[in-house]
Amino acid sequence: MRAFVKRNLLLFFRDRAAVFFSLLGVLVIIGLYLLFLGDAMKSDFRRFEGAGPLVDNWIMAGVIAVTPITTAMGALGNMIDDQRHKISKDFLSSPIRRSTLAAGYIVSSFIIGVAMTLVTIALAEVYIKVNGGNLLTTRALGKVLAVVLLNCLSATFMLFFVVSLFKSASAYSTASTLIGTLIGFLTGIYIPIGSLPAPIQTVIKVFPPSHAAMLLRRIMMEPAEIAAFAGAPSSELMRYRLAMGVAFEMGGRIITPLESTLYLLGVGVIFFFLSVWKISQKQA
Questions:
Q1: Rounded to the nearest 5°, which phi and psi values hold at 36?
Q2: DSSP code per residue over 206-220
Q3: Using CA atoms, how far apart are residues 66 and 62, in angstroms rounded to an integer?
Q4: Is the dihedral of CA 176, 178, 184, 185 positive or negative?
Q5: pLDDT band for position 284 (50/70/90)?
Q6: Smallest Cα–Cα separation from 249: which of 209, 198, 190, 187?
Q7: pLDDT (tens digit, 9 = 90+) per residue, 88-100?
Q8: 254 has which bridge partners?
Q9: Residue 166 has what pLDDT?
Q10: Sequence-distant contacts of 100-104: CB under 8 A, at least 24 apart
Q11: DSSP string spanning 76-141?
Q12: Residue (of 204, 177, 202, 178) closest to 190 by Cα position
C-alpha cells in the first residue's frame, strides 16, 4: 500500500492545477477578506481594543478549518481519474485487494490534507504577525495541530464516502465546485453565524467542519479576546462568541469544546464504517 500512497501523492503534487483548485475555496475566502470583509468587520468591532488581531485570528482560524475539506476533496480526484481512465480495473485485476486500494486513497488524501493545512497555518501566522498580532504559543500550537489532525481525519472519511458515490467525473467536478463555493458559508466565515436566520444557524452547527472552526477560533483568539474584553462582563464576551461562532448554543446550552471534539470524532467513526460498508458492497 505504501507504493500506492506514494503514487497518489506524486500525482497530486505534480499536477499544479489540481493543487491550485483544491485551494481555490481557501483563496476566495482570503481574497474577499483582504478586499473588503476584513475592513468591514474591523470597523464593526472598532470599540474593542486590538480589534485587528481579534478579527485576523478569527478569519484565519476559519481558513485553517476549511483547508482539509477542499484539499482532501481535490486529492480524492485521483480516485475519479483512475475510474475514468479505467486504471482502477488494472488495479483490481492485480492481487491487490479493493480494501487496500481504498485505504491507499484515504491515507494519501489524509496526508495531503494535513500537509496543505500545515502550510496554511504557517502562512496564517505570518499574516497575523505582520499585521501586529502575536504568534501562537507552543501550547496553543499543539492544540491547533491536534484539532487539525482530527478535522483532517473526519473530513477524509466523510469525503471518501461521498466521492465513492459518484459514477462520473462531471458529478465529482460539480460536487467539488459546490463544496468550494459553500464551505465559507457553512463554516460561518463569509457571514458570522449570529447574523443568520435560526434555521441556517442550525445547519452550520450540524456541519462537522464548523465545529473544527469553532475549536480553532477558541484557541487562536484567546489572547486577543483577553485584551479586547479586559474589564468587560463575561456576558458580553459570551454574546460576542455566540455571534461570531466562537461558541455554539444548542438546546438552550453552550456546547463545550469537549463535546465538539467528540462530535468530530464520532462523525469520523460513522463515515469510516460507512466507507467500509461501501467497499464491501462493491466487493460483493
A1: -150, -25
A2: HSHHHHHHHHHHHHH
A3: 6
A4: negative
A5: very low
A6: 198
A7: 766 666 667 777 8
A8: 249
A9: 86
A10: 100/1, 100/4, 101/4, 102/160, 102/164, 102/275, 102/279, 103/1, 104/1, 104/4, 104/5, 104/8
A11: THHHHHHHHTTHHHHHHTSS--HHHHHHHHHHHHHHHHHHHHHHHHHHHHHHHHHTT--PPPHHHH
A12: 204
Q: For cell 473526519, what's the residue?
A: 154
Strand 253-254 and strand 249-250: pairing?
antiparallel
Domain ranges of the chain: 2-283
Burial 40-61 (b: 16+ CB within 10 A, else e): ebbeebeebebbbbbbbbbbbb
Residue 12: pLDDT band with limits 50, 70, 90: confident
pLDDT, tens digit, 9 for 90 and up, residues 81-137: 888 877 776 666 666 777 788 888 999 999 999 999 999 999 899 988 988 888 999
Distance of CA 249 to the CA centre of its chain: 21
Cell (9 digits) for 47? 470599540
Spatial distance between the Cα atoms of 281 and 86, rounded to a whole number of angstroms: 20
Q: 36: which 3 cell numbers?
A: 473588503
Q: Identify the three-state secondary structure at position 164.
A: helix
* pTM score, whole prediction: 0.90
Q: Is the pLDDT of residue 142 over 80?
A: yes
pLDDT score recorded for residue 45: 61
Specify the residue for cell string 463554516: 187
Q: What is the per-residue pLDDT across 51-77, written as a single tens digit (0 to 9) for each?
A: 788 888 999 999 999 999 989 998 998
Residue that has been written with the C-alpha cell 483512475 in this structure: 82
- Looking at residues 201-210, what average pLDDT do you find? 93
